[in-house]
Design a protein that fits this description.
This protein has 129 residues and is α+β, with helices and mostly antiparallel strands. 22% of the residues lie in helices and 34% in strands. It has 3 helices and 7 strands. Strands 1, 2, 5, 6 and 7 form a 5-stranded antiparallel sheet that branches. The protein has a two-stranded antiparallel sheet with strand order 3-4.
Amino acid sequence: MSDRSIDVADIPVEQNEADRRDIVNKDRTPCIRLRVSYDEGGHNWYSGGKNPRCIKLVASLIHKGDGCYSCVIGKGIAYMLEPAPRFNRKRLELWASKIKTDERYLKAIAHVLQEEGRVRAGEAVASNG
C-alpha cells in the first residue's frame, strides 16, 4: 500500500477449481481487495485514452499467501469517486471511512465475482464485507 491509497477490505472468497489447479496460487487464499486511492491521471496504456486526476475505488481478485499476494494486471474494476486536481489525504481518508455505504462498493464486489466466474450474471451480493 502506498501513502496515496488505503486498503478498505480483503474479502475472502471460496477457492474454485482454477485456484486448486494453479501451481502458484493453490495454497493461497483468494480475496477481493477493495482499495480507495488517488489516481494521478495521465495516459491510459490499456485504452489509449487519458485518465483524470481523481479519488477512486479499485476492486480486484488477489491471492494472499505468506506475507505476499498475487494478482492479474488489467482485471478488476475502478470507479471514480470524485475529481481531485491535487492529492488530499483527508479526502482520501473520508472516502475510505464511508465507502462501504456507497452503492459502488457492492457493485465492485459483484463485478469481480462475475468477472472471475465465481457467481452467475444477476446473482446478488448479500454482504458488504
